[in-house]
Design goal:
It is a single chain. The protein is an alpha/beta fold. The chain has one domain: Rossmann fold, CATH 3.40.50. It contains twelve helices and five strands. It is globular and about 55 Å long. The N and C termini lie far apart (45 Å).
Amino acid sequence: MAVGSISNTLADVLFATKRVMLGHNRVRRTRLYCVGTSKSGTHSIASMFSRTVRTGHESEAVPLLENFVAWKSGRMDEAGFMEWLRARDGRLGLEVDSSTLNRDILDILLREFPDARFVLTIRDCYSWCNSHLNHAMRFRQNTHPLWREMSKWRMGSKAFEHAPEERLLKEQGLPGLNFHLCHWKWHNAGVLEQVPPARLLVVRTDEIGKRAFEIAEFAGLPRRVVRIEQTHEFRNAAKQNILAQLDPHFVESAVENHCRVLMSRFFPEIKSLRDAKL
């Protein structure tokens, strides 16, 4: 075994021993939050590191939803919510916390953990919307009602009535295209506006694999903890091309209205639905 490999193995063993002795909350090499939308690669970010890295994907999502909604609805004060969040952080002791819900508590994470870094996984709005609609159709019977409550909070009091061109979505009991694309913009633009550039790494979903080592280095983790083969997780083998079943002019109008600015910045090669790989 090479000297470098022996040294790395010893370092990992020593770190693991220290974490067992002192507790995972007190021994962390990094604090990285993935703040991408669902279906943008958050699962891959949590899976791409070896077992020596303490990672989590949507960890304790339902309790977080419960407490967040309780806070926002006035059934819990901010102090109580903060106390719960700090206890959760200590209990989980994550080095890599990947969850779309991190966007909803982003201001708190920025304030409470000044040493934290953030990675925004961003997917082009066409393939993201198509994937999100497929996911909603596939799991709608098992979706926790608090996720729907969270959607109402995110989008506020805006009315998103179905247009005649969206009869397919309405019949399936799914929100319309404007709702989804408005959410895409709200989520991604909000992260870009709130997180200081020095603490943020933006990674296109289709580039997670080739930028895996860069992500690790940004987080302050050694390259050896990266598992390249795990950088595209949670594929939907039964995915349908739902957007292709909608009026193309309606789709492009919605994209222009909500997403074109960010699309031009991060996906300049995708001019229309024809250019997207769904």
